[in-house]
Amino acid sequence: MKFINLFFICMCCIASAFAQSKNDVKKYKIKSLKIEQINFNDNTSETRTEKLQVFDSKGNVIENTDFKKDGSVQGKQVYVYDKENQLKQFTEIKSNGDLDQKHTYQYSANGDLDEEHVYNSKGNVIEKIKYKHNLNGDKTEEKHYNAEDQLVRTDLYSYLKPGLRLEKRSLDSSGKTILIKKYTYSF
Questions:
Q1: Structure pTM?
Q2: Are strands 44-55 and 32-41 parallel, antiparallel or unpaired?
Q3: Which of 140, 146, 157, 180 is most buried, with most CB under 10 Å away?
């Protein structure tokens, strides 16, 4: 029984990942995607909506709603893009409809993400992230600052080739390594 549930969850994830490709969304003129989960128990089945995504004409996700097992809204994310099709704002909304967090984004003249600000429900900055990129446009550094503008963490990225991340190394505010993530590819 657990195998069947796991199988359907995996299939939903695979279908979700495929259908959410910007190119596929534009090509097939997809306006929304509803992901349902079907649970089989003995001789019965139960279907529930897990997620609903809404897309704009450029293939961007503009709204993402997650649902609880009972069908009520767990939370919602709303995305706003600028005329260059870059994400400008990302808003997280609680199940009761109240604002949870808002993220705003600033880009360089060549389109690389420079800075992100995270605001709480009261509109106060709770985190600031500054980004650096190499000449290929690959992210090489993220510096995370708290509300008092103090450095909390630095994430450093290295690449095997342009676009192929090799490692992410996270450092605390004193420069001590606290996490390493390695990426391994099979060709």
A1: 0.79
A2: antiparallel
A3: 157
